[in-house]
Amino acid sequence: MPIDRRLLRHFEWTLPLLALVVSGTGIATVYSATYVPGSVGLSGFTLRQLASLALGLGGMVAVLAFDYRRLDRGAALVYTLALGAVLLVPVLGRIGGGSRRWIRIGPMSLQPSEFMKLALVIFLAHHFARLRDVRPGLRDAVVPLVAAAVPAVVILAQPDLGSAAVLGFVLLTMLVLGGLRLRVLGAMAAPIAVLAPFLWRHLKPYQQRRIATFLDPDTDPLGAGYHIIQSKIAVGSGMTWGKGFLQGTQNHLNFLPEHHTDFIFSVFAEEWGFVGCVVLMVLYLLLVLRGLAIAQRARDRFGILLCLGVMSVIFWQVVINVGMVTGLLPVVGIPLPFFSYGGSSMLCLLIGVGLVMNVAMRRYTMRR
Amino acid sequence: MGRRRDSDLHDGDPSIEVAARDVPADLLGRAGAAAVAVVLLFALIGVRLWYLQVVQGPEMRALSESNRIRLVRVPAARGIVYDRHGEILIDNRPAFDAVFVPEDARGHTRTLHELATYLGEPETAVRQALHAPSRRPPYEGIVVRRDLDWPGVVALETHQLDLPGVTLQVGPKRYYPYGPLAAHLLGYVGEVSERDLGAAGSGLRPGDVVGKSSLERAWDAELRGTSGGEQVEVDALGRRVRVLKEEPDTPGDNLTLTLDLDLQEVAERALGAAAGAVVALDPRNGEVLVLASHPAYDPNVFARGVQRDEWRTLVQDRLHPLSDRAVQGQYPPGSTFKVAVATAALDSGLIGPSWSVFCGGGLQFGGHYFHCWRKGGHGTVSLHDAIVESCDVYFYQAGERLGVDLIADYARRLGLGLPTGIRLEHEKTGTIPDTQWKRKRFGQPWFAGETLSVAIGQGYVTATPLQMAQLAAVVANGGIRYRPHYVMRVEGPDGAVKQAVEPEVLSDAHVRPGVFEQIRSAMRDVVMTDRGTARKARVAGIEVAGKTGTAQAVGGEAAAKRDPRARKDHAWFIAFAPVEHAEIAIAVLVEHAGEHGGTVAAPIAQQVLERYFTRGAAPPPPAQEAHADR
After folding, report:
1. CB atoms closer than 10 angstroms to residue B588
2. Between 20 and 30 A from A61 (CA), which of A129, A351, B237, B621?
3. Which helix H or strand E contains A269, and what residues bound it?
4. Contact residues on chain B for A36, CB-CB shorter than 8 A
5. What is the predicted ipTM?
6. How many CB pairs under 8 A join A and B?
7. What digits encode the pLDDT tens for the residues A71-110?
8. Annotated catalytic, B335?
9. How many Å lie between the alpha carbon of A365 and the closest alpha carbon of chain B?
């Protein structure tokens, strides 16, 4: 396919640049989090994260090559493939850190739950774009509900409470933005409230403990409660200007759990202080707002919903992760987008960015 | 829609755009509202960060310096172990450890010097302790001295200011009130090894105390309990300022054993200084009543942290006090093995009770002369006589008739050559040779002459004292092989029974009715008649059945050079009583006794049996009252 001149003229620069700046900061923080004093060169974590960034940028560019509306038509296929991968995890999965989340493909370990987040966005955008009715009703919510619930339950069983929760938030966002009346949402919430005690009993004891710990940290002073306190100390001890790059002490003394993945923000906050945190949060905010602006100017319903969905994945993960690390929200394993160590998350998010860029660049190309 | 080819020219003209776009205004409105929500939530995060980092920042910075908030583990008390009558075999006592956190002491040298002075130890000994745990998380205390004596506790308490980073930690220590008694069954505890720490899901931390051998190890999961912990705030010297939160520990489960302390004491006293083992089982269910191995060691030495030279002494002792002869010692069973050969003879029908042999003191076979232990010979003997008088010539001929494979088959049916399945690590199975075994092991065919050695329990045949006690139990109860077990029940700290160990049948010998009756009758006469070889095992008023054995120690000249004892014979005795409806089966081994089983081993069994029967079958010692006194 010859490259359309107009595509280049409308190339979206802001979004990928923001993502790149955040990713670069993230890799520097992974380096700090896994830095062993006295060692020379980059740690394996840093190198792998750099490779993930390169791979992700490749994926981002690759999804620019075709018109995003093809995804509208292929949404069911994308969803099915991702669901298939999620279902394969219990069969072929590799265990790490007490749960089974990864599938090995050659030298890489992929985490299908990350891809599921993106696939669900595409599928839900496709579903809501097709609704002609201005005010969709309860019946139109059944398919999205099932589409989110099936992978969520499987992922919950891995067990990966965080990824399952993200799917839930994405669904909720798409339902609201897709136009569901709030009254309908209320009607849907009622049975969930009824089912909650039942679901509670099916959570793993450590997940129950985490929720209980969130509601009352005193219930687990030696486990999660301690982690939250140490994380808050790390963040707070950064004060206004931070302790400086590689100077964090909480991190290097191994007091923080998962300090290069889920708790990486506390490493950053300790070293860069309030000022650094605000800069980082502003970067995230600009990235999300840019995505929303692209949505508002998109050509069709699918494009809008696709942008909104991708942004909701990024937004919720940032809010939940930072909320968790600063003691506002329960400790659930959710990575900080573009920041936490993890290849699958990086790859999926950059592909998501590529899709939004795709929507931005094809605002005016009307060929069908 | 293709009509808007010139669209780029109209960039920014909303009227044209909206008309062309397939987008409801409502959706755009919601996207706008979403942007507002996004900004608000980010603002909330900003406020939270401002609160933590700017408002609380200085306080958090102080806490982060030398990590002032720490977790201190509160080790759980291990479960208490009782004998079958409620006597305490393993207990806990409070003890003080000196714990050192190097990060709290700026400049170790001075602190270590002071510490060594107060403990009255050379500085090198204190330094040594610091090198031990390599994977220690920072700020986790290192135990520099376990189980301080009282002056030590006082010295450290009063000189806290000179000793930054040194704290006292009080915790339960294992205590074995009877010292070396039943040491090989009870085992010992020690600090968890780095390898065990690596095992996934162990939940163990450096410094935790775990079972290292025997019961303490095999039942570690039950005994260990769950350690608790405290979240404490410490000052810059590492001294605790206050406890922020705590989680209480849960003590481990208590075990009631089937072991009979009284009989164990009798057995060990009877064994005395000799190297050897005594095992007594209840043939009705496989309960272990006595399990003794000598020489023994004092597990208290390990509980307080074994010193290097103490350990060296134990390991280098030629008599290997750490090894459990009852379960791990493999010895040729000698004439006690004739019980298995006799079972094979009678049950297979190849040899009838009336088949008899003339013993002239030996037998010429394949160019080799096989001696009977009695040089003058036994004359004409039947199977019954051959067991009672332990005639070797009879069994040479019987073995030749039966063949090694048939003998091996019956030996295994009685439990030899197989693990008994007792819950103790490193149990040995002994060896029951047959033609297949020899081909596999040596790549050689079986020679007929070797069968003659096997028939009297020599040659390649070996067995553990536990297996021989089990064999006696199987003969006594008519062929049922129970798994030997020494734990009767597991109780939670609240006294609720969590697990009651049920007898477990491993196999049935499947021997024709009447066979074991004939063997029991012969074994009875071994003890109860004056021709028998074990007259010294008699107990007044009780019918005792038994079989002696005197086994040539295998090892050859080289072993004999290393240890002059190696030439001397092992003395065996297996027995059960009463002959009908036996309640106790016993095996005694005296290593390199140099004398007959009937002379050395039988009297040891006799003392245990006598104690068992003179105090009554179901002994009601004042155990309950004694227990209540504690």
Report:
1. 36
2. A129
3. helix A264-296
4. none
5. 0.91
6. 169
7. 999 999 999 999 999 998 887 776 665 566 777 776 677 8
8. yes
9. 8
